Each structure stands twice: as structure tokens, then as C-alpha cells.
Amino acid sequence: MYDRVNVDSTINMRRRPSWISAADASALLGVSRTTLYAYVSRGFVRSQATPGPSRERRYSRDDVERLQRRTEERRNPDKAVAHALQWGMPVLESAITLIDGQRLYYRGHDVLTLARTRSIAEVASLIWTGRFDAPSAIPAVAVRPADDDVPFAAHAQSLLASASAHDAAAFDLRSASVAACGWRILHLLTAAATRRSAAAGRTLTIDQRLARAWRVQTRGTDVLRSALILCADHELNVSSFTARCVASAGADPYAVVVAALSALTGPKHGGSGARVEAMLRSVRNERNLRAALAARLRRGERLDGFGHPLYTAGDPRAAMLMDMLRERYAASAELRFIVTFEAAAAALMREKPNVDFALAALARVLRLPAGSPLVVFAIGRTIGWIGHAIEQYATDQLIRPRAKYIGVPPST
Fold first, then answer.
1. How far apart are CA 106 and CA 123, in angstroms?
2. CB pairs under 8 A, 24+ apart, for 134-138?
């Protein structure tokens, strides 16, 4: 799930290689190869060996362009201000997530491996503390019942605001205390999703509690767990950046997650999953899916859930979830529809599915309630929000960009 950007620039990002030759890197930087090698030795530019017998190395385009921008911006400070928040421009340091154009890593660990082999508690511990074995606890938090027509996010925000008023420990912003509060928040969100007390199912994990409430079979619980882990963080997306901004003001972790949830619900971010759900429902009974999807495109309607600017070879999170569904639900008629839809849309769009599509596919195959893709995404991403809050509290710095005024000049 990501913010949409200018189409032309997005296409260019997808087509460009992530690793470039020494000649190209030197040319972009306007330096000799000797200087380039010095940048590598000082850790400014990453390099990797080229597969095969050649001893030539390739260099990270992102690192080269970052150095190039820094040089330009030192010469023109106004340009730095104007471009500071554009897509692809790193604006904050973080040790949590790396996206390298092909894969996704949490603190140096491949996310696909984590999603296959680790529990949610272990991944949350890794993101929050840097290790897998930090202690966790299931608190007894009362949950007020909500009307069935109250959306998950609104109900969750109400519960979080109420819990904040009664949780004095939340104002202790030391890392260990924030991590402990993170567990209270995670279980409160799970309670909001299941409409049950956070103390219910005390011996169950978060994925097991969701599976029980949604009547998911054992084979589906594993897929649900992996989905939550795959959604845990994705660098500085709009909701995570919102979380860091709120944390930078010194607000407590409950306020951080309330704000991040507000950003998440937007149709250009977490709300994109609802559009994929609606699209799948609208064509479920079409005999000729390719013709139906082509008709949508002719009407100017988007085929949501395909392509991602940060992954040139396709979103690895989506690929893993689709593989897991094929492994466990090969006989599912709903999965056959999803696979047929995926092939038809990919042929028209020439794009691979992203995590929005995969979460909607998971919801249909596992027969989850409407709106569950957003629930899974929000509970998983809360792990990342808390991780970013911990980092931001530790810096003790306020995030305060400047605006370049372009309005009517004051009268003299």
C-alpha cells in the first residue's frame, strides 16, 4: 500500500536498474573511479559483485543519486527544501527497514524468511528491540462494544484514546517502556478487530485470536500470521512518517497509533485494499474476465492492486502470500477466480500484483469479513509504527520542515 505519484516518474523508477556500472556511477557523480572507490570504502556507496566470471562490481544507484543530490543541494539550499519530501528522497535515518528494489528486510533479516519461520511476537521484538526474545505480555484491557456499522479504524481509535487516558505508564518514553506499551496497543487493536476483550484467549497469539474470531482453519492461520508480518513495516510510507512526526512532538504511543491509523484509512494508502475488494466483487461472476477488465480500463477506471514503484520485479510480499494460498488452497474455487483475475489483469497492465491485491485475495479465499484487508494491514503495521516511535523518541528531535512561501507577497 503506497501513495500514488506522478505516473511518468513512477514508470521510470520501475524501469531503471537498481545497480549500475562503475562508469555510470562515476559519470553521475562527476568524479573519477578512484574517488568512487573511496566513497565505497567510506560506506557512502554500496557495491556488489557481478554474477559470472567477470570481476566487475556494480554500484547502488540509490546511494549514488543520494550523494549526487547532496552535492547539488549544498550548492542550492532552496532546491533541498523544495525536494525534501518527494517520493524516493530519504529524509530520516532509520535502522528498521531496508527496501533494495527487489527485497524487503527488517533489521537485516529477509522479511520473506521471517514470515515463514517466525512468530508475530518475535518479529515485533526484532523491530522494537533488535532481538527476537524480548518479553511480551497480554494485558487485561476492557473493550467497549461497538455498533456493527462502526468501522474498525474508528472503533480502534476510540479505544486507544480511552486507554491512553487510563495508562499513566504510556508517558514513559524510554525504549523498553514504549515496547511494553506497544504490546498493550497491539492486543487492544486485536480486541477491536474481534470485538472481544483483550484478555479473551489469553494463551493465544494475535494471529490465533484473529483466526478464531474469523473462523479460519489451521492452514489459514499460518497465512494470516505471515500476512501480518509482511505488513509490519515498509520504511517511511505516509502512515509511518505520520507516526514519527507525532512521536517527535513527544506524544504518547497511543496518540502515535491514532494518528497513523488516520493516515492509513486514506484511499491512497490502506484504503486502497477496499477498492481492490470492491473490484473483485464487481467481476466475480463475469464469464470473460479479460473483456470485463478491458471494459473497466476503457471507462477510465483503474485496476487497483497492481504494480509498485519500489519493486522493479514485483512486490515480494504479494508473491509470497499468493504462493502460500496456492500451496494451501489449491482446490479452492475462489482461488481459481483470483488466479484467473491476476493473469488477465497482468496481461493488460503488464504489472504484477502488489500487497493490496494479495490481502484482498487472502480475504476472499479465507472468507474473512468485509474490510479485513485493512484490519490485517493495520494490526501488522502497528508493529512498525511503534518501532518508528521508539527510534524517534530516542533522537529527541522535533520534525519540523519549512515551507517555501509562493503566495501573494506582503505589501511594502
1. 8
2. 134/179, 136/183, 137/180, 137/183, 138/183, 138/187, 138/198, 138/199, 138/202
What are the tens digits of pLDDT across the range 306-338?
988 888 889 999 999 999 999 999 999 999 999
Spatial strand order of the sheet with 47-49 comes to 19-20, 57-60, 47-49
323 is catalytic: no
* Alpha-helical regions (H) of 76-217: 77-83, 111-117, 120-129, 152-166, 175-194, 206-214
What domains can you pick out in the chain, each with its CATH number?
7-75 (1.10.1660.10), 92-404 (1.10.580.10)
Q: Quick check: 270 and 239 in contact, CB under 8 A?
A: yes
Q: Which listed residue (207, 252, 304, 356) is catalytic?
A: 356
Reading the block at residue 226, the C-alpha cell is 505471515
Q: Look up the pTM and report it.
A: 0.76
234 is catalytic: no
